[in-house]
Specification:
Elements (H helix, E strand, L loop, with lengths): L2 H4 L4 H12 L6 H7 L6 H8 L9 H8 L3 H10 L10 H4 L5 H13 L9 H15 L3
Helix pairs in contact: 3-4, 5-6
């Protein structure tokens, strides 16, 4: 098996590849690297290919450079390091939310009169239908 086949494929790798591709013509890897304090752009290629994990202390600058939500990128960054025992953290990382996701939580709390949000069967079904309709999901 070659080195490329042994590299871990994870959400961070997929996300970076897509986002950097989306930014072509707007920002190049040299500029992204500079935003993170790196002199050479090859580090960004290493992140994209999964050769190197994104250091957690670089996540805020990377989120800003890529113009993406910090909470989402932080979750992807932490997931890169989860193996064995640390996978127990996944339970808590699922609760890290983006700014838009947090807005949904705030709407639920507001609708509940700023008290605990309790979803009984009827409310859960109505909410699920509204979300599907909002995203035009089947």
């Amino acid at each position: 098996m070659n080195d490329a086949a042994q590299r871990p494929r994870n959400e961070m790798v997929r996300f970076l590849g897509k986002r950097i591709e989306d930014l072509k013509g707007v920002k190049n890897q040299r500029e992204i690297a500079a935003d993170l304090g790196y002199e050479r752009p090859n580090i960004i290629s290493m992140f994209k290919q999964g050769d190197t994990k994104v250091p957690l202390d670089k996540i805020p600058a990377l989120a800003k450079s890529l113009e993406v939500d910090f909470g989402y990128l932080l979750r992807l960054g932490i997931e890169q390091f989860m193996t064995g025992e640390t996978e127990k953290l996944a339970h808590f990382m699922d609760r890290v939310v983006s700014d838009d996701e947090w807005e949904v939580v705030r709407m639920l709390r507001e609708a509940a009169g700023d008290s605990e949000v309790v979803l009984d069967g009827g409310k859960r079904a109505i909410l699920r239908d509204a979300v599907k309709k909002a995203w035009d999901c089947p």
